[in-house]
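HOLO CASE FILE
Compound: 3-methyl-2-oxobutanoic acid
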Amino acid sequence: MQDNLIIFDTTLRDGEQSPGASMTKEEKLRIAKALEKMRVDIIEAGFPIASPGDFEAVKAVSGMIKDSTICGLARALYKDIDCAAEALEPAKSSRIHTFIATSPIHMRDKLRMEPKEVIDSAIKAVQRASKYTDNIEFSPEDAGRSDFDFLCKIIEAVINVGAKTINIPDTVGYNLPQHFGELIGNLIKNIPNSDKAVFSVHCHNDLGLAVGNSLAAIINGARQVECTINGLGERAGNAALEEIVMTVKTRKDVFTCDTKLDTSQIVHCSRLVSTITGFPVQPNKAIVGANAFAHESGIHQDGVLKSRETYEIMRAEDVGWNANKMVLGKHSGRNAFRSRLEELGITFENEEELNKIFSQFKELADKKHEVYDEDLQALVSDTVQGREERIKLLSLKVGSETGVMPEAEVVLKIDGQQKSANAKGGGPVDATYKAIEEMVKSGCNLQLYSVNNITDGTDSQGEVTVRIDKEGRIVNGLGADTDIVIASAKAYINALNKVLDKRQREHPQQI
Ligand code: KIV
Ligand code: ZN
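Model generated. Tokens follow.
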């Protein structure tokens, strides 16, 4: 008999805690829409008390999403719970997720509370949340390093007052699959009222074991997993949604549960999250990496041609790889263009915006024969990003020749005023960044620069990711173009705009 595994996505909350991954409300809405389309059961949209931006984002997601439950995080404090309830008010279906640390080190050094006080706070938090909803989740933070008997006590107490989901976080990614699986099995076995709640897990990836630990927990009775797209998350990240879901589906001989996820949306969601946050996906990443289904060796290719099961355990199209190969070209009309965008879940504020992106698409189609979905995503990101940007790139000219120092001439519009500057540099990108800096004078420090091709072929757009930091505040920027120096300029300007944007929180969800 198969039972349901609940997919709880926390890309918009824990995922956003990755350095530089902070998202605007509009960006969160785009991701939430894609998660809903993929049929994620629960979307943790943020931590409403953390900042006005987070509150507004949770409220906006709550107002827009109809088919997934929207969850808001709250410490075990009345003010957090009231704030989460207010942000979730517009949601058709909502959940309050409250947490308090239970490991000896957290209780003693962080909370400075006695274990008895921690249990009292947890009970009061769940009782407070039950004023607003009966869909309440409780997490004993750092459960992976907590005392087993204490965990049993606090969990039994919160179930008694109405917690319906008990989430066991391995907050610091310390656990090993066998032990973590046993922990979940033993909690379910030893807590007298465990049958009144769904047991969930939330694993961090500090030792690279987040997915392994989550799967061991499922085998031992967990029926909800908390995960993020591409494994995005604080430090080494959270458990990757796509890896958990595809393991459960592929190894039906081991797993007795299944999800209702539409896996054909996985690659689309992965690209969207990567584009918005500026976190590229490594080519050899399972399921969503560019090489995940590429067979290089002759023996493998020969085997796959004879019978694909010889070397393939999943079909690329099942996770959306080949679905995204719909090609548009320079002769494609506006209607084909619009309907492809609709299929990708992309909507526009008005016709003017659609016209703008259509003419950018035509320009791109002139430069490269075939325009793929990935190209469209990048174009749309440029347009959406550009809506309220203070700095815009008007033109860029670079000279690069062997034996001569490269030079760049950049024209920008800054707060409506046109400015230009020339600079020389070690390479064309260095020269371009120096010219931009001369005008913007941001004083930012470039921490990371990387370039990837968006699609196959030498005519592909290059996607540049940069990470800059200004006095400890880290932001990522992304830019795409068939010319990688222009893509580099766009990425840098995108990051600078985030630094200047008051809506971008300095430290999302850190309070
Ligand atoms: O990692 C963690 O412990 C968390 C909790 C808030 C669930 O993110
Ligand atoms: Zn976490």
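CASE NOTES: The CA atoms of residues 75 and 275 lie 31 Å apart. Residues 334-385 form one domain.
CLOSED: yes
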